[in-house]
Design goal:
heterotrimer, A: alpha+beta, D-Maltodextrin-Binding Protein, domain 2, 2 domains, seven-stranded mixed beta sheet, three-stranded antiparallel beta sheet, 18 helices, 14 strands, 15% strand, C: alpha+beta, Periplasmic binding protein-like II, 4 domains, four-stranded antiparallel beta sheet, 15 strands, 13% strand
Chain lengths: 418, 281, 548
């Protein structure tokens, strides 16, 4: 009897839930209409913690000028998946800030809308940045910063920039032999590899990830890792690994790569603009140059990432969101402030020039990314990272590329075709 | 001497060994907190520099003060409330015999076993509606998060308390019942005072569990000022772990303070509860 | 502080205010809980009235809250929610006014449990029978809307207008547009007309007779209207982008219910709806990215069982997973109990300090300490190798990685067991252990024969739940080894992978999150844990009855 009561309660709680998750569409639109009916309305922006702090003053200024309330909220972890879940349930913010390789996933979930930029606005942005946010022929976000890897060199220890990776290794070995450093170079690998950081060397050795379609988009059907060039490329990388030169090691991870450089244990660091804050704090003299490739190999192509603002499809204040993203983000002042918060080169050509007048790093990073490859934004890219990284770590640890790479390729194609 | 060792000495030996084991990584964290360029790999076990720059920056650059307050309020409320709910249930499970009792107990355990990261989407959907209907207990509010935490009130802690209530002889409440006490009176007057140590332990465990909870709080609290310590600290090292490691270490150490303080406060209850040997049966 | 005198008041646990006042009144006359059992209760036979008052107060509170909560529901016509609320209130009244005694104690916690644990679990399990995941989250209608809005493109070579949004005196919304030559237009649902007598400043209309210009703050209230206002033109329509620009644009893809397909106007390509996979597919098998959620029956469950990536390494992973959970549980229990025993004596000086230091690992945020430990195990830079002058590649070999993972877990978990054992030891009457020692038993014998069995009565349910927790201890692996090391020829499952970390990678490692698939894997794991727990739980029945 008593338990039956509990059972009934449970059953009703469930119907309650089912109705909550089912067709409640009209109630939620009612509520949202009511929200925005309040005077002025609210514009909500989601970003990660660092950018939230930089954005806040500008967002508030925008709100004041336009008579609306602007809220910048920080999502500390899993911003992308939180945003998708929120937009599925109708509690999405109006704007989200994130990397351009999210676009594929955000579009397949119907979470963001394309933005319309005027021809002047388009021409004020770096071509590569616009290319990054273009997906299926549409512009889906307004870029504000570009980032890519470069070689950062301690100029006290190594005065000249190496032309090839072989030069770098021999110079690094000399420094190590003389006791000035303890590592040849610092390029993060970790126990499970790091596809992003090895990519310049991989491309220089002849590898690729995806073919390219006629319209310039990456083609998920044409998998570069499955080709023999990929295995050949990793044979070259293996020579730099733990059983070879010892330049690439699994013990150098995302946690300590920059610290290894700032504590002068290595004269060379392969990293991005985000490393500069620490390097400056450590007071190290440095120069930023392109990542060198293998002697006689192809060009070393770093991935190019673009940071952008997106208009949420299911936001409650789309008009204000569009206004903010298209006309406010494209202003030089905001771009410069975001650069000060974290030194990633601005996507606005004018802001980049102004920043470069006092700071050589931005230009140097742009130069290093000149022949870079846009990080694929297609959803299939997320199937690459994990198996590719693991194969990389195995090869660097001494495994035979002939077994590791085809195994990774199979895992990737299985995941894509599932 | 040998006798001293047999009776007391070994206790110190075990204690010192265990303290060394438990402090070893924490000393490392302390030296990173004091190190001006606090990064993981550059830090030695003993501090190489002593600066409070990290601590100062933590309060200047972040909303650390707010996080601290939020955490204490949320963890405090949620742990007290969930302890009470849990105790009520444990009393029923231990003292009463009803159909489905053991199944219910097992179900409590199994429900907790479901991977939390899969539940996030559903919980988000539920609270989306709740936020629409009752914004005061919806997203970005303390109360909403406390409500959600109460969903986990019946769980491992209920088991823990049930186990302890089982060791309190039933004859005790039976004789009270015979004297005419109602079941509520038996519960509050007889059983509760006898299980104080475990209440203190469970209270502490619930507090620690909530203050460190991260997955749900991250979904719930988005205003920088409304975050809890766990979420705020994670935000410091998310992405590039190197940059803020020093701040992060200071934050982690400060996070431990309320817990240790609470433990110090509760110690006497944990130890003193049954010194008079109430349970003789 | 003298423990004995103040014990009764000090040990007062948290409880509702009414009850505690009542309690304080009655405790003032007694010295210890035990001595007062008989007398207090006889003296307080009038408390039933007080109990009744408390009950009435509490139930009226519930009613008040229920009424408060009902208004927004009625307002939003959320009948499902309202029905749910009614059931909850009814069950509260039923339980507290009628007889089912155990439910009086169980109901409060159970309600929360059902709402925030059971219901989400059941809903999530139900997604195992769908293709729910990235690209298949919403309804078909949502997918169509997204495809259509995603295909809105500027008409090539069309004019770009500067926009000012205004209202007519009637309140109707219009666009005041300026072309690059400075010519002003007014646009509404009927089309575009030239606008005379407008003041154009900086390329934008700043004033026009008969129109009131609106600022952004005023506009956000009419968001939907602005989005819906399309000024028809020959090639498409003029739409606003924000409130300062407008473009001539057209949707290049639209849904045709006749063929149940999406048609691209420019290329003529057709994507036909496939109700089985929840996506639009063209003749060559190419899918549109936006899909919708459909039921797939037992497909997910079957593919988990038949997928060679899963079934192949399953047994090996399961064995390690069981080993990890057992070693973590028993290891932490052994260390925690040893510490608790060592501290269980008034002769130990500095007892309080010892205890405070011992719980420190548990007081630190665990995710932070997992990251710190990971770094301490680094082969070249880690503190452990440096301090012990070792050159062990901890995370490089399967057994060293497993040992490291367990060691970290011991550190994190032993304070918990220490706390619990300390509490449990207090509950064992000293007289019992002392008596056995008087009987000539050694300390060890006394422990084995008296203390341990008593402890296990209280703690064995806890050991089971600790085992189940560690079986699914996602963070312990995800934040340290991430499953490493992986064999070179198999990147899908590593030596330290638990079933749960492995599931996580399977579900979220492909092209977007696959919740349906993950839920299916979880059902299998859940079943395994349930069976193990249920079997060990059955064995505790025996112990429980010792005292019952």
């Amino acid at each position: 009897m008593r338990i039956r009561t509990a059972g009934v309660t449970a059953a009703f709680a469930l119907t309650l839930l089912a109705s909550a998750c089912g067709g409640n569409d009209d109630t939620s639109t009612d509520a949202s209409a009511k929200d925005s009916a309040q005077a002025g309305g609210t514009l909500t922006i989601w970003a990660d913690d660092k950018r939230t702090a930089a954005l806040k003053p500008f967002a508030e200024k925008f709100g004041k000028e336009n008579g609306i309330t602007v809220e910048v909220q920080a999502v500390s972890k899993d911003l992308q998946s939180n945003f998708v879940t929120a937009s599925q349930s109708g509690k999405a913010p109006d704007i989200v800030v994130g990397a351009h390789d999210w676009i594929g996933n955000l579009v397949q979930n119907g979470a963001i809308d394309p933005v319309q930029l005027s021809s002047t606005q388009k021409s004020s942005l770096a071509d590569i940045a616009l290319k990054g946010v273009t997906y299926n022929g549409q512009i889906y976000g307004v870029p504000y910063a570009i980032e890519n890897l470069a070689l950062i060199r301690n100029t006290d220890l190594a005065p000249t920039a190496p032309a090839t990776i072989e030069d770098l290794v021999s110079s690094g070995k000399k420094l190590k032999a003389s006791g000035k450093t303890s590592e040849i170079m610092s390029l993060q690998v970790g126990e499970n590899g790091d596809a992003y950081h090895i990519y310049p060397l991989y491309t220089s050795a002849g590898g690729s990830l995806f073919g390219v379609k006629d319209n310039g988009d990456y083609d998920a059907k044409d998998l570069g890792v499955a080709k023999t060039e990929a295995t050949a490329a990793f044979e070259k990388i293996a020579k730099l690994g733990e059983k070879g030169e010892g330049a690439l090691k699994r013990s150098i991870t995302g946690d300590n790569a920059i610290a290894t450089f700032t504590s002068k244990k290595a004269a060379y660091l392969v990293s991005g603009p985000w490393a500069l804050t620490d390097i400056k704090a450590a007071g190290i003299k440095y120069e930023v140059t392109p990542v060198p490739g293998f002697a006689g190999g192809k060009a070393a192509q770093p991935f190019i990432g673009v940071q952008a603002f997106y208009v949420a499809s299911k936001g409650t204040n789309k008009v204000a969101a569009q206004e903010f993203v298209t006309n406010y983000v494209t202003q030089v002042d905001l771009a410069k402030a975001l650069y000060t918060a974290e030194p990633r080169p601005p996507a606005l050509t004018k802001a980049l020039e102004e920043v470069s007048a006092t700071d050589a790093d931005a230009k140097a990073f742009m130069e290093a990314g000149k022949n870079g490859a846009i990080l694929p934004a297609i959803p299939e890219m997320s199937a690459i990272w994990d198996p590719f990284g693991k194969a990389e770590a195995a090869v660097i640890g001494g495994a035979d590329p002939a077994t590791a790479i085809p195994a990774a390729a199979k895992a990737i194609s299985d995941a894509i075709n599932k | 001497m040998k006798r001293w060792f047999m009776r007391v000495g070994w206790r110190h030996l075990v204690g010192l060994g265990a303290v060394a084991f438990s402090l070893f990584p924490i000393v490392f964290v302390i030296s990173a907190a004091l190190n001006p360029l606090g990064t993981l790999s550059s830090t030695e076990l003993l501090p190489t520099g002593a600066t409070f720059r990290n601590a100062a920056q933590l309060f200047e650059k972040t909303e650390f003060g707010h996080w601290y307050l939020n955490s204490i309020v949320i963890a405090g409320t949620a742990s007290v409330a969930s302890m009470f709910l849990s105790l009520l249930a444990a009393y029923a499970f231990s003292r009463m015999r009803f159909a489905g009792r053991r199944v219910g107990l097992l179900a409590l355990l199994l429900i907790q076993m479901f991977p939390q990261f899969l539940l996030i989407v559903t919980i988000f959907l539920i609270f989306t509606d709740i936020s629409d209907f009752w914004p005061s207990v919806g997203f970005n509010t303390w109360w909403g998060l406390v409500l959600l935490y109460l969903g986990g009130a019946l769980g491992v802690n209920t088991w823990l308390m049930k186990g302890f209530l089982d060791t309190v002889p039933k004859e005790l409440d039976e004789s009270a019942r015979m004297d005419g006490a109602s079941h509520v009176q038996v519960f509050f007057r007889i059983v509760l005072p006898l299980v104080t140590p475990i209440l203190a332990v469970v209270g502490l465990l619930a507090f620690i569990g909530t203050i460190n909870e991260f997955l749900m709080a991250n979904v719930f609290l988005k205003d920088p000022q409304s975050k809890t310590l766990a979420v705020g600290l994670y935000g410091l090292v998310a992405g590039e772990r190197n940059n803020n490691f020093g701040l992060f270490c200071v934050g982690s150490l400060l996070t431990a303070i309320p817990t240790v303080a609470l433990f110090q406060f509760l110690q006497r209850y944990i130890v003193s509860g049954l010194t008079s040997g109430a349970v003789k049966g | 502080m003298s423990k004995r005198d103040s014990g009764a008041v000090e040990t007062r646990p948290p409880r509702p205010e009414a009850a505690s006042t009542h309690h304080r009144r009655s405790t003032s006359s007694r010295k210890s809980p035990r001595s007062s059992v008989g007398s207090t209760i006889v003296a307080d036979s009038s408390t039933t009235t007080l109990g009744l008052i408390v009950k009435i107060l509490a139930l009226s509170m519930v009613t008040a809250v229920a009424i408060w909560a009902a208004f927004p529901l009625i307002d939003a016509k959320a009948w499902g929610w309202l029905a749910g609320e009614a059931v909850i209130v009814a069950s509260v009244f039923f339980v507290y006014l009628r007889r089912p005694l155990p439910m009086k104690y169980l109901l409060p916690g159970t309600l929360f449990l059902l709402a925030f644990q059971v219901a989400p679990v059941i809903y999530t399990v139900s997604t195992a029978f769908t293709n729910f995941g990235d690209g298949h989250r919403g309804t078909k209608q949502e997918a169509i809307t997204s495809i259509q809005t995603g295909s809105v493109k500027q008409v090539e070579g069309s004019t770009e207008y500067t926009l000012a949004v205004a209202t007519r005196d009637s309140g109707e919304l219009v666009f005041l547009l300026t072309d690059p030559d400075g010519q002003a237009f007014v646009g509404d649902a009927d089309g575009l007309r030239k606008l005379g007598g407008a003041t154009v400043d900086g390329g934008r209309v700043t004033a026009a007779s008969g129109y009131t210009l609106l600022k952004l703050g005023q506009l956000s209230a009419r968001n939907q209207e602005i989005g819906d206002l399309k000024v028809p033109t020959d090639n498409g329509a003029i739409i606003a982008s924000g409130v300062t620009q407008a473009f001539e644009a057209k949707a290049t893809r639209h849904y045709d219910p006749a063929c149940d397909c999406v048609i691209d106007v420019e290329t003529g390509t057709q994507w036909v709806a496939d109700a089985e996979t929840g996506s639009f597919v063209d003749a060559s098998g190419e899918r549109l990215p936006q899909g919708w959620k459909v039921n797939v029956g037992f497909d997910n469950l079957v593919s988990v069982a038949t997928d060679p990536h899963i079934s192949g390494p399953f047994v090996r992973t399961l064995i390690w997973n069981l080993g990890f959970a057992l070693a973590s549980t028993l290891g932490t229990f052994a260390i925690g109990l040893l510490c608790a025993l060592a501290m269980h004596s008034d002769r130990v000086r500095g007892q309080k300090i010892y205890r405070a230091l011992l719980i420190l690992p548990y007081a630190m945020p665990s995710f932070a300490m997992l990251l710190v430990w990971r770094d301490m195990f680094n082969a070249d830079f880690g503190l452990i190798n440096r301090m012990l002058s070792l050159h062990v590649d901890w995370f490089g070999g399967p057994w060293t990685a497993r040992a490291a993972a367990i060691a970290v877990q011991l550190w994190l978990g032993f304070p918990y067991m220490f706390l619990v054992s300390t509490g449990a030891l207090q509950a064992i009457p000293k007289e019992m252990t002392e008596a056995s020692q008087v009987d000539g038993a050694t300390v060890w014998q006394a422990f084995r024969q008296v203390t341990l069995p008593l402890l296990l009565v209280a703690l064995s349910p806890l050991l089971i739940s600790s085992f189940s927790f560690n079986f699914n201890n996602f963070n312990a692996i995800y934040l340290t080894t991430e499953g490493a090391p992986f064999p070179a020829d198999n990147t899908s499952v590593g030596a330290t992978d638990l079933l749960i970390t492995y599931t996580y990678r399977l579900a979220f490692g492909g092209a977007g999150a696959e919740y349906g698939f993950a839920a299916a894997v979880s059902i299998y794991i859940f079943t395994i844990v349930a069976v193990i727990s249920a079997i060990s739980f059955r064995r505790t029945r025996h112990q429980e009855e010792v005292y019952s």
